[in-house]
Amino acid sequence: MRFSVWPWLSTSWPELETLVHHVEATGWDGVYVADHFMGDGGTFGPVESPLLEATATLAALAGATHRLRLGTIVLGVTYRHPAVLANWATTVDHASGGRLVLGVGAGWQENEHEQYGIELGSPGERVDRFGEALQVLTGLFAQPRTTVVGTHLRVTDAVCEPKPIQDPLPILVGAKGDRMLGHAARYAHEWNMWSTPASNAERAAVLDRHCERIGRDPATIVRSTQALVFVDDGSAASRAGRQAMIDRYAPRPTVGGTPGQIAEQVAAYTGVGVSEFIVPDFTLGTGSRRTDRLDALIDAFAPLRS
Known about the structure:
alpha/beta; eight-stranded parallel β-barrel; two-stranded antiparallel sheet; 10 helices; 43% helix; 19% strand; globular
């Protein structure tokens, strides 16, 4: 199993860079960043919180790191035109020496679209647009010329040069709905969703059925997941504090306890086919408190490493 860190970008650049350097030096496999311009007023923080932009962040981290996989979780195709995105992704793949994971999704956060005047569309429209975006991306990465004439997107005899270093550049699809999983089955190299082991297994079965329907081996899609992580020291007071935080973020999937207990909970994901667990840093504190907890977690995860 691989283990990666998801730093929330409501931070200063020096703090983020220091954290990522620490993550790379202590054996984590990757860093993922979310694609948002503001908080949602809930799990992802106050609307007014400062937030670094995802694509610029990863471009900078490509030159500031040497080993980590660098991924997005996930870029919204409502405000990232796939042809423009393909050119950005190719450049960052080259700048990083072939370490980019291009995570994409259909878009969901209403307040961003409302404030910036960007059409979000109905759930059905978003899924349709997403399928067209995946056609554009996969074509531009692999073909000399790409034409897609869709309801939402149109590219004509389009080029994207140079091609990515990675062949193929891994496209990660964030999805849990049935139709979205159909797109993942057709186009994704990796699939991601927030999950418990049980919810992951149920959705993975749908993904597998889509794969079988189109003649694709489901094993060719790498599966990753994340849950909020609450670390405590095992004391009664610490456990009570952890439970209060879990209640605050419900129903978002969570794991919690001492680092050893968390590792036991994460091990259950391997039984349903998950091969990468991503740790959001939202609940780990800041500064040395956060890095100490990350160190304890990566040590506890050692028996699960692949």
